[in-house]
């Protein structure tokens, strides 16, 4: 098993740590220790830790979910001293394997809530970051306000000093710091959300205001919420993939991570209590993240859902299979060049066509083996985030709606869980309940347009788009996905 004892006997070709791990502090607390975080933020911080004067920026990971799965994950991290390997794979198959030691501690919140609160209140903690998914911020899409009526939030509000949600933990940590006369920490969202810093601000201040208006005022005056744009394709790692990674590296790692060799992080330099020298690890600091965010969300993420839904219906299971299909590659290029790119306000020095070509190369990476089910998971949240701007601009300008209507229709048909070959699969949609799925399967093909996934343009006249979606759903059922794609 990989742990600190085995660091001195790593297999040839595995990059060792460039720093003494015992000297690494705990300056960052991170909620949501998933594969993306481990291949992205932790990877950047791991590079910083090898630089002079950066040893204080180690990370404490926090898991919010208990139960057998959460407890098993916590045990694995603890048994491996929070060490793991990262395998980066290029489109041509070239690989790099490195040990990541940035994660210094892992806390399972339900098992020891006070340990998490103590860490948040510790003056050593200067940044609290999170990857809690696009739909995890509990914001009412119509009002833009934090939803106080959500069950777990209501429970935290009833017992704010004994929280269970990320909102409760962060705000209680800030309350303790304020009471002790300590400076606050920066709250950093690393999720794929438009203006994710502003969303995080609305969520945490909204919760704090319900707990204590004076505390909320202090947070607004002292805590910063930088916006960020994050990008790295990081697939899930099942048992077979884990074994294959270990066979290739020679390691015995229960927690290996696989990622493409591309990574990008664009950040506002707006930290209230210091930060790592991330610019020396390749992070791009800018005054306004919005333009970079628009490019990534509306080109990469939106086309991922488009290809993922259509690919699943055609019987594909991996991302690289979709762009190897001539019809799907043509569809993606048409969506990018005709629908997305002409309506994006990109940074002045950003070449959208170069970015488009790079996306095709990234999607074609067979070694990453990114599954379409992962890409489409929580699609109801992703559609709202990734497609809304392009849909709104298209409706406002009278732009051609054919490919957009196809994307929505394919997404809804994909939710039914069966491809055109008759094979079943299980879409992961944590925000859709039984009533929502009944709308998906309703004989009235317009019924599913009431899903919250499409709330982002609910205030607009979408009559033509709705009609096109219904027409396209019917055509997919009658003539098949490929026949419909070939007409676009």
TrEMBL record:
<protein>
    <submittedName>
        <fullName>Polyol:NADP oxidoreductase</fullName>
    </submittedName>
</protein>
<feature type="domain" description="Mannitol dehydrogenase N-terminal">
    <location>
        <begin position="27"/>
        <end position="280"/>
    </location>
</feature>
<dbReference type="InterPro" id="IPR000669">
    <property type="entry name" value="Mannitol_DH"/>
</dbReference>
<dbReference type="GO" id="GO:0019594">
    <property type="term" value="P:mannitol metabolic process"/>
</dbReference>
<dbReference type="InterPro" id="IPR013131">
    <property type="entry name" value="Mannitol_DH_N"/>
</dbReference>
<dbReference type="InterPro" id="IPR036291">
    <property type="entry name" value="NAD(P)-bd_dom_sf"/>
</dbReference>
<dbReference type="Pfam" id="PF08125">
    <property type="entry name" value="Mannitol_dh_C"/>
</dbReference>
<dbReference type="InterPro" id="IPR050988">
    <property type="entry name" value="Mannitol_DH/Oxidoreductase"/>
</dbReference>
<dbReference type="InterPro" id="IPR008927">
    <property type="entry name" value="6-PGluconate_DH-like_C_sf"/>
</dbReference>
<feature type="domain" description="Mannitol dehydrogenase C-terminal">
    <location>
        <begin position="288"/>
        <end position="459"/>
    </location>
</feature>
<dbReference type="GO" id="GO:0016616">
    <property type="term" value="F:oxidoreductase activity, acting on the CH-OH group of donors, NAD or NADP as acceptor"/>
</dbReference>
<keyword id="KW-0560">Oxidoreductase</keyword>
<dbReference type="InterPro" id="IPR023027">
    <property type="entry name" value="Mannitol_DH_CS"/>
</dbReference>
<dbReference type="Pfam" id="PF01232">
    <property type="entry name" value="Mannitol_dh"/>
</dbReference>
<keyword id="KW-0520">NAD</keyword>
<dbReference type="InterPro" id="IPR013118">
    <property type="entry name" value="Mannitol_DH_C"/>
</dbReference>
<dbReference type="InterPro" id="IPR013328">
    <property type="entry name" value="6PGD_dom2"/>
</dbReference>
